[in-house]
Amino acid sequence: VLPVAREDFRGATRYADQSQLNLRAGDALHLAICASHGATLSTLDRRLAEAASQVGVASVLLSAR
User: Fold this and answer.
1) Is the pLDDT score of 15 beyond 90?
2) Helices (H), the chain
3) How far apart are CA 5 and CA 62, in angstroms?
4) Residue 50: which pLDDT band, with cuts at 50, 70 and 90?
5) Which pTM does this prediction carry?
6) Cα(47)–Cα(29) distance, rounded to whole angstroms?
7) Which residues pair with 42 in a beta bridge?
8) What share of the chain is helix, strand, coil (3-state, %, to 5)?
9) What are the φ and ψ backbone dihedral angles of 16, each rounded to 5 degrees?
């Protein structure tokens, strides 16, 4: 669990404004939090994992069972 800072919301806005990433607001915020903390994003969402790769955030794509 990571704290959410004001700067994370600003980062989420920058990601959400990049139409090629095709991110929803909540996904953009998760991505921004990982970026600001140097954390790896774990997700079931292939699109979000691809967006993470495009902005330089490490990600792990989990598979649903």
Assistant:
1) yes
2) 6-16, 25-37, 46-55
3) 27
4) very high
5) 0.90
6) 15
7) 60
8) 55, 10, 35
9) -65, -30
